[in-house]
Amino acid sequence: MLLPCTCDKEKRLERVPADSLTPYQRELKTLSKERYAKLKKSMAQYGFTVPLFIWKSGKKRFILDGHQRLRVLTTEKWEVDGGIPIVSVEANSAQEAAEKLLVIASQYGEMSSQGLYEFGDFYDLKLSEFDFAELPNINWDEFTNEYFGDGEDDAPPDDRIPDQFDVLVICETQEQQTETLERLMKEGYECRAIIS
């Protein structure tokens, strides 16, 4: 299968073949059969969506981020249209490259079920059908049961989502819109610009 490269349509990133890349993380992470299947499904649906981060040492390119995606590509004998996009990360030594690998693999922000629900609602995502992402700190079965239940009601109970009241402000110029948005955001309001 030839996967589209959906992260570099303008082809500004360096592209390389899979066999020019060397894994660097050793056995730091594993990939279960279930997670492999989810990653495979997401790559088949969305293409190659994020470039690999690599460290160049001499003529070798060591992977700092993207080992599992490369594993799916090579196992399935898939290719990325135009080659695998890469971004080089600078490191002065193998030790510094390993430290940066750990930084890249770290997850500093923490996702909550409520935050995920609100994110999905804001972008009109069908989260009850979105089952192939591996999201940290989210038990997918518990999340879908809590927020979508038996499917009869797509909204969670009222006590989980605060009341929301919308106001539409019609501005005569883009400058006026920008000033109004900035003023409201400084006051702590969540705002979105709509141009029609």
The side-by-side strand order for the widest beta sheet comes to 2-7-4-5-3
Mean pLDDT: 85
Query: Helical content, roughly?
Result: 25-40%
Order of helices and strands: EEEHEEHEEHHHH
How many whole angstroms does the radius of gyration measure?
Answer: 22 Å
CATH third-level topology of the largest domain: Conserved hypothetical protein from pyrococcus furiosus pfu- 392566-001, ParB domain
Uncertain regions spanning at least 5 consecutive residues: 151-158
Proper CATH architecture of the largest domain: Alpha-Beta Complex
Describe the biggest sheet?
Answer: 5 strands, mixed
Structural class estimated from helices and strands: alpha/beta
- How far apart the termini lie comes to 41 Å
Number of strands: 7
Oligomer: single chain
CATH superfamily of the largest domain: Conserved hypothetical protein from pyrococcus furiosus pfu- 392566-001, ParB domain
Number of domains: 3
Overall body shape? globular
Percentage of β-strand residues: 5-15%
The number of helical segments is: 6
CATH class of the largest domain: Alpha Beta
Brief digest:
With 196 residues, the chain is α/β, with parallel strands linked by helices.
Overview of this structure, please?
The structure is a single chain. This protein has 196 residues and is an alpha/beta fold. The protein folds into 3 domains: 2-105, Conserved hypothetical protein from pyrococcus furiosus pfu- 392566-001, ParB domain, CATH 3.90.1530.10; 109-164, no CATH class; 165-196, no CATH class. The protein has 6 helices and 7 strands, in the order E-E-E-H-E-E-H-E-E-H-H-H-H. It has helices at residues 33-46, 67-76, 94-105, 113-122, 140-148, 174-186, and strands at 2-3, 14-16, 21-23, 52-57, 60-65, 79-80, 84-88. The strands form 2 sheets. It has a 5-stranded mixed beta sheet with strand order 2-7-4-5-3, covered by helices on one side. Strands 1-6 form a two-stranded parallel sheet.
